[in-house]
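Hello again,

I reread your note about wanting to compare the complex against the isolated chains. To keep things tidy I'm splitting this into two emails, and this first one only covers the full assembly. Below are the input lines as submitted, including protein chains and any nucleic acid or small-molecule components. They are followed by the predicted structure of everything together. The single-chain runs will come separately.
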Amino acid sequence: MTGNKTFWGGIQSCLPTVLGYIGIGLALGIVGINSNLTLWEIALTSIFIYAGSAQFIFCGLFLLHAPIPLLVSTIFLVNLRHLLMSMSASQSFLDGSFRANVGIGLLLTDESFAVLMTEVARGQKITIRWMNGLNIMAYLTWILATIVGGLIGRWIPNPYAFGLDYALAAMFAGLFIAQASLSISAKGKSILFVLSTVFVSLYLFMYIVSPEIAILIATLLGCTVGVMIHGHK
Amino acid sequence: MGINNYFFIALLGCCLVTAIPRVLPFAFVKIVKLPARLVSFLEYLPLCILGALLFQSILVVKAGVVTFDLLKSIALIPTILVAVYTKDLMKTVLVGVIVIAILRFFF
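Full-complex prediction:
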């Protein structure tokens, strides 16, 4: 995207995803305020949990006053994919200090992970400053968007009417297409087998397990097929 | 400020279980070297996880059956076309949100 690997370069690399964060952050704020969370509580969940899907589920379970062990274990499962993403992302920061790396890990999201891995796939050099710019810009945008969503949420009970919730799907579509075209040019048509595995297994496992676990299983199966095909070449 | 105990304990628990999986691999990246096989496995991770997240965003479970959310699936067609032809994430998100808002207005 940009050859600039400074903090500002990171902020610039974040900009394309900002619209997605704003859309889904507004939707989350609206849902939060209508789940009887206060504006402060919405801000605190964004600051301390900082994970879109986990925060949506938090709102739902908070409204139901679900038992805390259930709430916490659900959030744990929803976010477990971050373990995989962090494993993958951390390989680009092998010579970072402990403190710098922990900071990067804390703020890693689906989107910042995707932006990072797209840069990696393009053969760009990755710096800690750039990654911090990318992460911190996303973090601040998210916190602000959820607060604004909470502010306007009293007048808009249903964010779905405005299509804001779809910002997430659209952002995944954009990030996916970028990643898929890079993967196909790097590894050829065999990538299509990997993707078919992901789609089919996700669909099937949605019948048996929770959506979050289905994502994990489908991802692991897709990677397995990838390694198997790659190994045969 | 209305921050009650239930909220605070829930927040603390959720903070820990979201932070730990994110941080752990970064904290140990210098100490534990991942085996080559696992590294090549992880090469496919961005593609697979984004594919799964995208595909799941158009699926719904209704009465025990996994089906496609019709409006979301339809809106995905122009969204993906914009993504493929412009490679511009911002335009992709804008088109997606506008198309689904229009579709939901009429249907």
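For quick reference: The first strand of chain B starts at residue 59 and ends at 62.

B.
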